[in-house]
Amino acid sequence: MGLTTAYRLSKQGHQVTVFESAPQLGGLATHHDYGPFVWDRFYHVILPSDQHLIGLLREIGLGEQLRWQKTLTGFYANRKYYSVSNTIEFLRFPALNLLDKVRLAFTLLYGSRINNWRKLEQIPVEDWLVRLSGRSTYEKFWEPLLRAKLGEYYQRVSAVFIWSYIKRLFSARDSSLSKEQLGYVQGGYKTVFERLATLIHQANGNIRTGVTVEYIGPAPNGGLLIEHSGTKEHFDKVFFTGPVNILQRVAARELFHLSKQDNPIDYLGVICMVLITRKPLVPFYIVNIADQQIPFTGVIGMSNIVALEETAGFHITYLPKYIPSDDPLLQQPNEEIKRQFASGIRSMFPDLKEEDVLSVHINRATKVQPMQVLNYSQIVPQVTAANKDFFVLNTSQFLRDNSNNNAVVRHVTEFFEHGFL
Ligand SMILES: Cc1cc2nc3c(=O)[nH]c(=O)nc-3n(C[C@H](O)[C@H](O)[C@H](O)COP(=O)(O)OP(=O)(O)OC[C@H]3O[C@@H](n4cnc5c(N)ncnc54)[C@H](O)[C@@H]3O)c2cc1C
Asked: Which CATH architecture has domain 265-370?
């Protein structure tokens, strides 16, 4: 959000300075050094329907580096893997009977055609899915999928979450329930952030990594002051693109108005084990797990999309576990997380031998996305800048989208279309 905003401002002729507290750019979409190669810290894919994101990538000259791959979707139930990647496999999927399947197909079609999401906000996701798909399909198909995306949090979200997922995913398929096409940029998101940084530098902008903004306040003679590393700097305008709790911590009270402060936003956190192996673990991009004994919430076979030459011939598999952002597990040492995940790894990949594993990494993030609970658009605190030189853009302002980079780019584009300067 910050780099896209900075790039757009640079293009308009403004001289920008970007502050990033982490040592490297990219936030949640940043990269990680896995040893023989560098790839995204968390798994990221681009959908063919991500038109705003793809538009930006083309605009910054990365259109030619987009790669697309047909992928498979799997289900893990009763200690077996099932591919549900095309109509025939789906019709054969033994966990669902024919009626379940018809109801599931109806839910996907119906959901993809809904445009008025506001009504869905009042309905818990489980109620909506059970009503459309039936209890049996819900338990065997939707619940594992919700767990894979949200962990135990899934019971608290509204139907908007799954509607927006269906909408986004439906257009990733050639036709309903045929094979999915998913994409990435060669070199991963590192390539994207490096290109944005280059363009910002070319427009005389500055990028300061490893610098935490500690305070933003009004300057006596107009504009704003930013305080960091014991110094103060003056700027004409400031765009804040971090989460709301950090806004509350660093920005002077008179700069913004936050409605309904008694309703803090709950964020979802994630612990993500990354296995670098000499052989593939699954043939699927994503495996939804219908087995509550497994301690992680999904399996992401990234190398089924990303060409092996990107990852020095090794296979990269992510094992995410989504949890509330205040879950104590997020603070546990890596060894404890490895210990907890070990039984699931043994059950799901019984043929995996120690010598097949090059390395194991634990990545974590406390603020992955705001939880779209019931009536989210009415209870989410509205941030309004109360100073003509101060602007706030962040993912808590997404009312109908799950957090993803297409929604990020669209949010920035719409902000500029509404003519801020
Ligand atoms: C496991 C996982 C999988 C995902 N998969 C996908 C996917 O497949 N496709 C997709 O499109 N999206 C995906 N996403 C979502 C995507 O990463 C986010 O939508 C995107 O990163 C949000 O960008 P942002 O700029 O809003 O927030 P962030 O990435 O959180 O950036 C906020 C930045 O602000 C910085 N910051 C905070 N406070 C300060 C301060 N005081 N001073 C200076 N800097 C500060 C932070 O360090 C951070 O870099 C995924 C995310 C995760 C975690």
From this structure: Alpha-Beta Complex (3.90)
